[in-house]
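Revision sheet: structure tokens.
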Amino acid sequence: MPYRHLPFLPELNNQGLPGQLLYQQSDSVSEPQMPRLFFSERLAELQDWIKHLCRMGEIDHASGNHIAWSISVSSCLQYQAMFERMEGYLATVVLLPMEFEYSEYLNVFIQSCLQLQILTKKNGNFVMDVSLSVSTQLRDVTLDWTSFCQLLDLICAKSRTAEFKAKLRFQAKEANERYTDYCNYVNALFDCCDRLVVLRVDLVYHKELTGKTSLEMALADLDRLFANMRNNYLFESLEGYIVKTEYGIERGIHFHLVLFFNGSARNGSSHIFHARQIGQYWSEVITRGRGWYWNCNRDAKNYQKMGRLGVGLIHWSDTDLRNNLLEHVVGYVCKQDQCFRSLLLPRAKLIRRGQYPAILNVKRGRPRMLSQTDGVQVS
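Predicted:
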């Protein structure tokens, strides 16, 4: 397994953050740089490992083996590496706010840690069960091998329950249905426009405000942005949008925004500048300096080199770009792993799109022609 080859966690400073800077400084005031999402990477690693463990638990259960026995004998090297990384993973998990629920894999990990008192609830957050300062708690808590095996055993036991399996099936079904619907929505926009200018902008808050910006406050800013779109030249010829709300330890509440403009009315060659203008509008007008942004269109050349370009000007007949748009842009927004749910605002709509366009019954002009090799796959 690859886990034993993963790099070890760096030392944490007295703020509970990695020694290296999480946010790179930009040479351009108007174009901030993408931060290094240290804790998000650790959570992704942990979640992948929990997925693997749950699958292994199914195998061990079917064969009649006890998971702790199989770990200590047949998979010692593999799980020893994860045991050595657990301190860092726990130090990351304690930074997650209690007001949210996360993916089912992270939830089962947290619930198992609470049940075994590896984690305890205190002051509205997860903290280690030791009587030390918060910064030291994140650094000095140890987990012995026996407790580690008990944790894995409990996770596997919970993953075999009907409730856990039903939640996974529901989340997967919901994600698949949403992805299909959003792909159909994008294709419907192309049915009305010969070409679209696709902008993708991440809307974020400054790092010193991430813990002070609640979901309710962030959604109010997002609603203000959409309300202001109606009479703003930046959003003229806007045909549709997709926006997803996410939570990250480094970024706090943030939004992935995808905008679709009519390419016959907007200059597609200026898509990078246009995305920058919208990001600056979010930063300077909507949030009044509390927010910043990441202009994903600025990386269009890099996406093109990787064969993943799905932003900028896209013609309805360009099969490759349209498939990239559906797979890498829409697919990223709809992915299940980054979903979370608010316990305080259970009805909050955290992913949304615009309305399907009205299709005219009679279309004038020359009909569109596709070659035999053309065609767009939705899924």
